[in-house]
Amino acid sequence: MNKQDTILIGKLQQLKGIQPKSEWRVLFKEKLNAETGFVKAEARNKNTEFSIITENKQFALADRIKEFLAFLRSLSFSRASFAGAAIALFLMISGGTMISYATAASLPGDRFYSLKLATEKVKFALAPDEEKRFVLRFEFINSRLAEMGAAMDINESEDAKTDRVTAAVNAIKNEINNINDDFDKFDKKIGNSEPAKAVKVAKSIDETMNNYGKTLIATVTMLSVSIKEKTKANVSETMKVAEETSNKTLLVLVERRNEASVMTNEELTQRVEQKIVNAEAKLKDVQDKAHVLANSQAETEIVANTPSGDTVGDNASDSKKEETKDTASDILSNEAQAMLADARMKLQTNDLSGALKTAAVSESIVSATENIISASVTPNLTATVTPDVITDKPITENNPASAIIENPLIPLKTITPSPVLTPTPSNLP
Amino acid sequence: MKGLNTNKNSPDTEIEASGQINAAVYSGLYDKYVAAIYRYIYFKVNVAEIAEDLTGDTFLKTWQYLQNGHKIDNIKAFFYQTANNLVTDYYRSRASKSVSIDKAEKIIDTKAASEIDKINLNTELAIIQETLKQLNETYKEIIALYFIEQLTITEIANIKNKSEGAIRVLIHRALKSIKNKLPKEYVEAMQKIVHPEGKDQGNGLNVDNSVLIENLSVE
Known about the structure:
The structure holds two protein chains of two kinds. Chain A is mainly α. Chain A has helices at 3-14, 22-36, 61-74, 79-95, 101-104, 113-125, 130-151, 158-190, 195-222, 225-230, 232-255, 265-305, 314-323, 328-348, 352-376. Chain B has helices at residues 23-45, 48-67, 75-93, 115-134, 137-148, 153-160, 164-181, 184-192, 210-217. In chain B, helix 1 crosses helix 3 (75-93), helix 5 crosses helix 7 and helix 6 packs across helix 7 (164-181).
């Protein structure tokens, strides 16, 4: 063994500096702990290490840096070393976000999926500002949409695929809800001081939600019939929250257009009109379904009440069908129709805010109507009605139809037709 | 974990007296070995992301193995064996992809005096990494285990299921092989910086290889 060998061995030992990325190391540990059941978060020893994430909680980058700097100070570093370590932190944060292909391509239910979600959490927590966080949330939704499509390409049972699709759809809904909540906070925080910023974010959310709605519909068409049926309720709920979020942000754009406009009045008018058109189309669809259902129920009832051998006359059948008119869905859809007509009138008078609010309430009523129809074709669901939430109060301005949408199974005999409602901001979803 | 041998003298097998594997201990074992297992795999697959995946699989599979009631006498050796099997499976399933020298893993030595030293050191280590890749799998593995991870000859013999004598021979041959494959310019440069005390000059390196060399000499 000569001196050259010694030097070479010394250099080889320097290869010990090759380490897995600290981000991966920490994230995988979380995954491993979840797998082994060691879920209790480790108490961090601040004297020995700085951990990127703790207890699965996201906390602000500023807090992390403060914590890290405090840790460095406790080590009594020289000024130069202190700066070097701070740079290392920066490099660690900025350069360690790449995740492996296997993790990135994982789908709900896969082994590495939780690692993928954890990585997203870290990216989110490390985002420099609120605007970037919104963008990241959009990216996460795009990932979930891609996962929905990818789940269909896997060679596995329909049940397994359904689970994956359901998980992705639910995750999209949660993410949209998060966007909704975050926007509320963001608007509250900077809405008055920096209206231009708030309006810019609002526009981006409105556009994105609009696109997600379309993409979700397109993705759902790729699903098999059985999966489509099993995930229908989740998809519908997700579409609803996307629509509500879009409505909320569009309202901000409309109401702040004089302070900081990112869209012309014409563009805003078109967007609001599009909302009304969408609501009208949905109402038409729901009315058609209600009509088919009512006729079908009437036919069933007539056949059941007709003694064996008798024929049912056309007049009897028609009159029976006529009796079905005052169903819950009819009452609600008539009200939605009246509100949409009102929204159109407001739009003509350039009352964009009023038109949007009215259209939004109308849309909620249409959704409630749709739920009633779904419940009608699924009789068992009626058993889930809780008596104490059933109201005897008629629909009035103080107790609008939209108030019952939380429980669309309320017996509609208790609801009396009301004059067209004047929506208020609180009516908005 | 039932049936798992417990050796209270070894921190690697800190299993609860009940015989059940302690998830907290396993989490500690991960902390202790993750970097070493990652490096071991990295030198075999040459792609950081794949090394991460296979490292993760190593710890998950070992845990599952324990959960299934199997005995593990030496957890450290078991991690290496599992990693080795996973790498073998990986190569069976796809062709290896190696990285070019400029993509070789960068190693920042915080002891380095200046940015230039860091660059020199990284370049030097990149050359060694590249040379390491040219070795056959056995030599590469022996160098990783003995010189880089500094496992004892007994431990390597245990992992590789070979006699200690056979491992010593392999270490000698592996070292000779890497020396022969090093670029001529690098060997010449190395000759110029040979230090009388066997310690590296410059780059802040201060390597004491006496133990390794001593062990190797006992043949």
